[in-house]
């Protein structure tokens, strides 16, 4: 008799625990679908996937560089020894900077990003 009671209690506990997990899965599935519905989808792009702002890139002549950038190039020991190949003016948001392409002694191209104030941002 004790064996039957113990087996019944174990079976009841097992069934109750299985049922509880199924309910949690259903609840979490509902929460996930509700969260997905909250995310607006405007023209195929959600608010969290806003495309980055495009930078405007224009090639300019060396003479069109600001005086601060020209002074920096003349005073920099490395850059003053290299031949300037191309200059691009980059406008992104309210920021303006310049991508400068130099030819090295090994005939390789070296890119340098310079701010409008003549500060080297990136080699």
Automatic annotation (TrEMBL):
This is Uncharacterized protein. Residues 22-58 are annotated as: Disordered.
């Amino acid at each position: 008799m004790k064996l039957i009671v113990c087996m019944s209690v174990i079976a009841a506990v097992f069934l109750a625990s299985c049922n509880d997990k199924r309910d949690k899965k259903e609840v979490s599935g509902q929460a996930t679908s509700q969260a997905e519905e909250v995310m607006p989808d405007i023209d195929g792009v959600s608010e969290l996937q806003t495309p980055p702002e495009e930078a405007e890139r224009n090639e300019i002549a060396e003479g069109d560089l600001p005086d601060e950038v020209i002074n920096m190039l003349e005073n920099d020991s490395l850059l003053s020894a290299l031949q300037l190949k191309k200059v691009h003016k980059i406008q992104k948001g309210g920021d303006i900077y310049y991508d400068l392409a130099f030819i090295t002694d090994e005939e390789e191209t070296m890119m340098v990003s310079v701010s409008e104030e003549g500060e080297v941002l990136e080699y």
